[in-house]
């Protein structure tokens, strides 16, 4: 990510770590990303912070093979548009599964992961990613760790 | 009381990799062509407005309005650079139109220029991703092709579009590009070429994506009742409209519709008092193949989920029912982001004057439309031009 010092990453940390959005008590609509004003109710709206359940379904997805400079080392990776149970959508990586297993309608849940590292000892940014809601990710993750261990043992 | 506005001259560079030319050189080349075509002195120009997405990030150079005016030897003519990502050129045209229609100025140069190939491709991808929502899209790893890929995946799921049909958008645009001496790519390609090119963001492959280009384009605007001072074939601006939508896809319920395009098209057609069936050719913003399909639907030429059927039947070629992107579009014609919106207008003008070379002229073209989009649809500009 270009030209960002610490405050810029820190500023949206709470929302990025805990998947926080906005809820309007007047019309009952939830929003993500967070808003200052309910666009439907405007002055009549009563907005407050809400922490989303992190459960949702894949509305659409893509597998990025050519990433921007910051993310290219992670390619190929899956980007999904996730529709949360509470209604709003978030854009996030979908991890702990094979890209070819991702499909529209797939149930997913939020997890906490590293997003990227800046070059040369810069900031490491964390936030939410999503993974399959069934237990398949446990098996996938264990295999990933075992492979990593095996590679480490070889070298 | 607003005045009728006409395009009295045009100019454009080839779009492509111009290693020996910088931003100022490109602007000069397109500007001089337009000035010579109108038979005027540069000093007759009262106002310059041009699109440039990111001189700052591509070249480390901001304040390019005055920079270009100075290089063209036009100081102290006021010069304004406008930015709306890939719609910068279209927005510049809209601003130039307002300046003449309002009666403020009688001769306005509208331009667009972008110098993109001085940075490496990964850097260009990163700069272009600034056209999306940085905080909640790019920050999580989304790229610009990635966001259009999200639209494509959903569209394929909802309407049954197949990759081989989508590929025909690129095949057609390369065919048209092969006839355009100013196009970035002049090679013809096949559906097989598209489907065997590397994946950029599934389901979009390299041949579904437009290139990164250097280039510039320029048009001169004057009130219609003074237009014949400059040309025998003024092209009339019948309708022009701009609209806005969310920068990110997150807050659009239907990600297969670019609402800014829908809104701008409605306004432009109402202003022109014309119907879709009156249009003889369209230049649409095909930054990715899926974008061309969505554009034809959002502009109102087809119902949602229907536009790709035109490609199965070859109706979007020159000679077809609705010729689309006769200069090769962004895909083969090239995409110098800030210049593209103006380049599209240059192509429509050439078509309406009957001057499109290389066998791509649409017979008897009288009315044409240009459609320019910024980012993933946060800005759209629709312009309708007529020969009479």
Q: Helix and strand string of chain B, N-terminal first?
A: EHEHHEHEHHHHEEEEHEHHHHEE
Looking at how many chains there are and whether they match, the oligomeric state comes to: heterodimer
Helix content of chain B: 25-40%
Query: How confident overall, as mean pLDDT of chain B?
Result: 96
Radius of gyration of CA atoms of chain A, rounded to a whole number: 18 Å
Taken from the alpha-carbon principal axes, the silhouette of chain B is: globular
Main sheet strand line-up of chain B? 3-2-4-7-1-8-11-10-9
Roughly how many Å apart are the termini of chain A? Answer: 32 Å
The total beta strand count of chain B reads 11
CATH architecture descriptor text of the largest domain in chain B? 3-Layer(aba) Sandwich
The domain count of chain B comes to: 2
> Which CATH first-tier class of the largest domain in chain B would you pick?
Alpha Beta
CATH topology of the domain at 54-154 in chain A: OB fold (Dihydrolipoamide Acetyltransferase, E2P)
Tally of DSSP helical segments of chain B: 13
Largest sheet of chain B: 9 strands, mixed
Which features does this protein show?
heterodimer; A: 155 residues; alpha+beta; 5-stranded antiparallel sheet; 3-stranded antiparallel sheet; B: 388 residues; alpha/beta; Peroxisomal Thiolase, Chain A, domain 1; 9-stranded mixed sheet; two-stranded antiparallel ribbon; 36% helix; 17% strand; globular
Quick take:
The complex is a heterodimer of chains A (155) and B (388). Chain A is an alpha+beta fold.
Description:
The complex is a heterodimer of chains A (155) and B (388). Chain A has 155 residues and is an alpha+beta fold. Chain A is built from 3 helices and 8 strands. Chain A has helices at 6-11, 13-18, 136-154, and strands spanning 20-24, 30-31, 47-51, 55-64, 77-84, 89-94, 107-117, 124-132. The mean pLDDT of chain A is 91. By secondary structure, chain B is of the alpha/beta class. Helices cover 36% and strands 17% of the residues of chain B. Chain B has helices at 23-38, 55-59, 64-71, 88-101, 121-128, 144-159, 163-177, 191-195, 259-272, 289-298, 308-312, 329-333, 337-353; strands at 5-12, 47-51, 79-82, 108-114, 199-201, 204-205, 215-223, 235-244, 281-283, 367-374, 379-386. In chain B, the strands form 2 sheets. In chain B, strands 3-2-4-7-1-8-11-10-9 form a 9-stranded mixed beta sheet, sandwiched between helices. In chain B, strands 5-6 form a two-stranded antiparallel sheet. The two termini of chain B are 21 Å apart. The mean pLDDT of chain B is 96. Chain A binds chain B through residues 1-2, 12, 31-33, 59-72, 74, 76-77, 79, 81, 88-93, 99, 104, 115-116, 125, 127, and chain B through 57, 122-123, 125-126, 129, 135-143, 145-146, 149-154, 157, 198-204, 248-251, 255.
């Amino acid at each position: 990510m270009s030209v960002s010092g610490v405050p810029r990453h820190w500023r949206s940390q709470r929302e990025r770590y805990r998947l926080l959005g906005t809820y309007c008590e007047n019309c009952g609509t939830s929003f993500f990303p967070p808003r200052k004003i309910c666009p439907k109710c405007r002055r009549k709206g009563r907005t407050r912070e809400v922490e989303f359940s992190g459960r949702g379904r894949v509305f659409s997805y893509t597998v990025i093979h050519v990433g921007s400079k910051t993310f290219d080392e992670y390619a190929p990776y899956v980007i999904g548009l996730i529709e949360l149970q509470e209604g709003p959508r978030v854009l996030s990586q979908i991890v702990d599964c094979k890209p070819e297993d991702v499909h529209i309608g797939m149930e997913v849940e939020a997890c906490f992961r590293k997003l990227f590292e800046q070059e040369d000892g810069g900031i490491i940014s964390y936030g939410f990613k999503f993974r399959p809601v069934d237990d398949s990710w446990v098996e996938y993750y264990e295999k990933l760790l075992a492979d990593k261990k095996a590679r480490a043992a070889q070298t | 009381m607003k005045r009728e506005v006409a395009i009295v001259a045009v100019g454009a560079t080839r779009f492509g990799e111009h290693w020996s030319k910088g931003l100022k050189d490109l602007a000069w080349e397109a500007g001089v062509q337009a000035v010579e075509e109108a038979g005027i002195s540069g000093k007759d120009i009262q106002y310059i407005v041009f699109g440039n997405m990111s001189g700052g990030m591509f070249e480390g150079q901001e304040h390019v309005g005055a920079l270009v005016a100075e290089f063209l030897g036009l100081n102290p003519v006021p010069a304004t650079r406008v930015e709306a990502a890939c719609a910068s050129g279209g927005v510049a045209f809209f601003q130039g139109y307002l300046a003449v229609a309002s009666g403020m100025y009688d001769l306005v140069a509208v331009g667009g220029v972008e110098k993109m190939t001085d940075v490496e491709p990964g850097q260009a991808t990163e700069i272009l991703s600034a056209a999306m929502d940085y905080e909640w899209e790019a920050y999580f790893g989304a790229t610009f092709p990635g966001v259009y890929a999200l639209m494509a995946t959903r569209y394929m799921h909802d309407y049954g579009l197949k990759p081989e049909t989508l590929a025909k958008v690129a095949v057609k645009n390369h065919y048209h590009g092969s006839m355009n001496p100013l196009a970035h790519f002049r090679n013809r390609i096949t559906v097989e070429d598209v489907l065997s090119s590397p994946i950029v963001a599934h389901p979009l492959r390299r041949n579904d994506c437009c290139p990164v280009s250097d280039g510039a384009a320029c048009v001169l605007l004057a009130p219609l009742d003074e237009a014949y001072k400059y040309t025998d074939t003024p092209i009339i601006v019948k309708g022009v409209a701009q609209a806005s939508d969310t920068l990110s896809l997150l807050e659009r319920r239907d990600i297969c519709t670019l609402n800014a395009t829908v809104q701008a098209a409605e306004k432009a057609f109402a202003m022109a008092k014309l119907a879709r069936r009156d249009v003889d050719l369209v230049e649409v913003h095909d930054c990715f193949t899926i974008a061309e399909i969505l554009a034809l639907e959002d502009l109102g030429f087809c119902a949602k989920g229907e536009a790709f059927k035109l490609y199965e039947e070859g109706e979007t070629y020159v000679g077809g029912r609705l010729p689309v992107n006769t200069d090769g579009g962004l895909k083969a014609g090239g995409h110098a982001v800030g210049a593209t919106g103006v380049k599209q207008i240059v192509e429509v003008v050439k078509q309406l004057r009957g001057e499109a070379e290389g066998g791509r002229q649409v017979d008897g073209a009288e009315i044409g439309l240009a459609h320019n989009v910024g980012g993933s649809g946060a800005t759209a500009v629709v312009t309708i031009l007529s020969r009479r």
